[in-house]
Amino acid sequence: MPLCLKIMLDPDISQTLISGLDNHLMDVFPFDKVDVKKSVQLPSSCWNANRRQYDANCLLAFASSHNSTGIVLLIISKDTYVPELNFVFGIALTGVGAVVSVYRLEDDPEFLQKEITHELGHVFGLKHCSLPCVMTFSNSVWEARLKTSIFCEKCWGQLEQEEL
Questions:
Q1: Domains of the chain by start residue, with CATH
Q2: How far apart are CA 73 and CA 53, in angstroms?
């Protein structure tokens, strides 16, 4: 069965930032098609005024409710969090989709690509990895910058075995 990735963008994401992303994702993951939907308005119900951040879990639920088939990826320009952390670069749900925030990624397309690859790795069932790997957990921008942008041999093997 063909596997489609639907990418949803908030209005502040520039085309320059995501240029070539669709080709990269089709090279790394078993997607048959990547569709990009521009200018998705973020739900105000996901905004936490006290934290001045968006709730990443709420955004993931929003994105997945707008996608009936395949995998969904919501890319936003705003800061995100989950209750147990001060911020997150992204969040994912196995077999469903991911949310990635560019807020702390310094408008760097390669940095964004790395974090999207990490989150989609989770969508395909991969866990955090202790080897030099894109699946290494990052607790800071510095740590995220240091990690490699590719899967280690172990994770690559697991990814090749996964079916959604």
A1: 4-126 (3.40.390.10)
A2: 19
Task: Using DSSP bridges, classify how beta strands 71-76 and 80-81 pair: parallel, antiparallel or unpaired.
Answer: unpaired
Pairing of strands 97-101, 90-93: antiparallel
What pLDDT, on the 0 to 100 scale, is given for residue 163?
65
Q: What is the structure's pLDDT at 13?
A: 93
d(CA 154, CA 83): 31
> pTM of this prediction?
0.94
Which pLDDT score is estimated for 56? 98
Which residues belong to the active site?
Answer: 119
Please enumerate in sequence order all residues whose Cβ is within 8 A of that of 64, keeping only pairs 6 or more positions apart, or say none.
72, 93, 96, 97
The total of other beta-carbon atoms located within 10 Å of residue 160's CB is 10
Average pLDDT per consecutive 10 residues, the chain (164 residues; last block may be shorter): 89 91 93 88 96 98 87 96 95 96 92 96 96 94 93 93 70
What sign does the CA torsion over 16, 7, 117, 103 have? positive
User: What is the Cα–Cα distance from 65 to 44, expressed in whole angstroms?
Assistant: 15
